[in-house]
Amino acid sequence: MKLGKYLLAGATALALATAANVARADHYDDGQWSLTAKALEGKTVAFVPISMGFDLPQAWAGAVQHAADKWGFKFVIRDPNWDVAAGVQALSQLVAEKPDVLIVQPADPQSYAKLIAKALSAGIKVVQINMESVTRGDAYVGSDWYDVAGTEMDMLEKLCGKASGKSGNIALISGIPTNPGMMVGMQAINDKLKQYPDLKLVANQAADYDPTKAHDVAATIL
Predict the structure, then answer these.
(1) Among 103, 105, 13, residue whose Cα is nearest residue 66
(2) Is the distance from CB of 51 to CB of 82 less than 8 angstroms?
């Protein structure tokens, strides 16, 4: 990834800043800290991840909670636990509750699009983290998935291309094909396959973020 999970978490906290022009004398003012702290004081920030069941969202939430404790804003989490329908329901409820800032990790490009648009229309600041909906928010904090997948393909060319004495056959096991990061990454993979004709994608299967299914898919491919 372009940004480590902890750098990404810190960047997310900074991305929550809105316009405020008050400096704090009790902390070094780097042009970001005082703006963020003052803008968020007394506000409510809500987070809807894909799931809180793995390390990345836990790290992001931990960073925002640290900022909440330090700067004096309320932080709430609505965990859909991989269920897109539950995520839609959580977002609908939050838009009705009107938090000041909404941090969203979209499960796919379409499912949250109308709700994100509704949140923006209601004046809620929307930060999308690590993946994006087709509806753009106020900020995106995350990886350049096209660059990530392209770099991986460059490495595969060196490791598996015919010049290395290997067959050039590669297999892809993804989480969910409609995941925004996967969709963008797949564009890079296809572009690199045109650039590297000695590489051949012989299998492309999804495992739905299920370790058991991923193991079975890998066994079948091998």
Answers:
(1) 13
(2) yes
Gap between the terminal Cα atoms of the chain = 27
pLDDT-derived band of residue 4, with 50, 70 and 90 as boundaries?
very low
Which pLDDT value is given to residue 53?
93
CA dist 156 and 142 (Å) reads 24
Q: What tokens does 51 get?
A: 């799931």
Amino acid letter for position 121: S
